[in-house]
Amino acid sequence: MFSIPLRFLINFSVYWSYGFSIPIFILGGACIMLKFYQDLIFSVSECIFCKIVKGELKAYKIYEDDKCIAFLDINPINPGHTLVVPKKHVENILEADDDTISAVFRAVREVSKLLIKKLGASGVNIIHNAGRAANQEIMHLHVHVIPRYDPGDIGLVDWWRKNVKKLDLEDIYRRIIS
């Protein structure tokens, strides 16, 4: 059995980022970085979107039906940036059944209409990243609905890496649900 003497354990930190953890152990000056993917660490009950669906975590919900919910993204690209999520846990569109995909995209259409009407957007971008290679960060199917107000308001190349402006989600939420 492998054990680490306490005197060699200088620092232990757990970093939580986008649904998976990265434990970092610094032992005697050497840094060993281990990355455990969500499937190994998290059960469905610990999925952040499943917790939002169950009401265990607060979210600015702007739409709900029997199969989906939609809530404001906490790191919005533009005012009203919304995530549409099926209530049933499924990793991405490649794993979803036809009924789930249909329900999600019906909800995407309704949310898009709502954002255009309530926020005065001229259009929307609809984006889904399927898998880690496509930069899917939360391993629960979700579709980004990003309102567009001006063709140059955001660039879609590397949009997820840009420093987003902090928006008043409470104010945007009130404007949408009013």
Task: Assign the CATH superfamily of the largest domain.
Answer: HIT-like
Shape: globular
In whole angstroms, the N-to-C terminal distance is 61 Å
Along the chain, the helix and strand elements come as EEEHHEEEHEEH
* Number of E strands: 8
What is the domain tally?
2
CATH-level-2 architecture of the largest domain: 2-Layer Sandwich
Q: Look at the helices and sheets and give the structural class.
A: alpha+beta
Strand content: 25-35%
Q: How would you state the average pLDDT, rounded? A: 76
Q: Poorly predicted ranges (pLDDT <50, ≥5 residues)?
A: 1-43
Biggest beta sheet attributes: 5 strands, antiparallel
| CATH class division of the largest domain | Alpha Beta
By CATH, the topology of the largest domain is HIT family, subunit A
Tell me the strand order in the biggest sheet: 4-5-6-8-7
What radius of gyration results from the CA coordinates?
19 Å
Secondary structure: helix percent: 10-25%
Essential attributes:
single chain; 178 residues; alpha+beta; HIT family, subunit A; 2 domains; 5-stranded antiparallel β-sheet; 3-stranded antiparallel β-sheet; disordered N terminus
